[in-house]
Amino acid sequence: MKNIAIFASGSGSNFQAIVNAGKSGVLVGNISLVVCDKAGARVIERANEAGVETFVFSPKNFESKADFEREILQELIDKEIDLIVLAGYMRLIGETLLQAYQGRIINIHPSLLPAFPGKHAIHQAIDKGVKITGVTVHFVDEGMDTGPIIAQRAIEIEEHDHIEDVEKKIHEIEHELYPTTINYVLHHHLQ
Ligand code: GRF
After folding, report:
1. Which of 56, 62, 149, 177 is deepest in the core (most CB within 10 A)?
2. What secondary structure does DSSP assign to 28-62, as a single string?
3. Which CATH number does the domain housing residue 148 bear?
4. Annotated catalytic residue, options 109, 162, 175, 187
């Protein structure tokens, strides 16, 4: 089985969904590592509960992105990681990791890209008054949410929906879509 590293900065509900898919035998990869750039993030607790090793670092302790990405890369090599899965990792991936893992880094984004890239995608969609939004899984390149699209799912924004309602619909879709798309990528792109 291929080894997966999940990068996250926050709650880690997508991490949890991937772990649960692993437990129920749906996932065709091993979740071997969590990389987190925020001490105290909920995802670290979740990783501990799931028995997944963590690499937690503080970017401010490094002079540059290249410096901390070199440390991350060493961890990835040590753990023989095949695929990097970004799940709420709130940083752009730099040259060091992009070069080492070209075509082997994926991200999930809460909009139908190329609409609403960047932060606060759900807010942006609501502010714009769109009636349909959704979730995108894509390969990562040097841009912000710009790489080739792998999978998308749509949801409706209804008249009476508050931000929390839309967030809930988006998360439900994400938790289903990410594990199945990881399987797809492992099958079709990493053989
Ligand atoms: C998700 O909505 C994902 O689309 C975005 O960041 C959020 C992460 O949520 N990139 P969680 O930490 O997995 O709960």
Report:
1. 177
2. SEEEEEEEESSTT-HHHHHHHHHT--EEE--GGGS
3. 3.40.50.170
4. 109
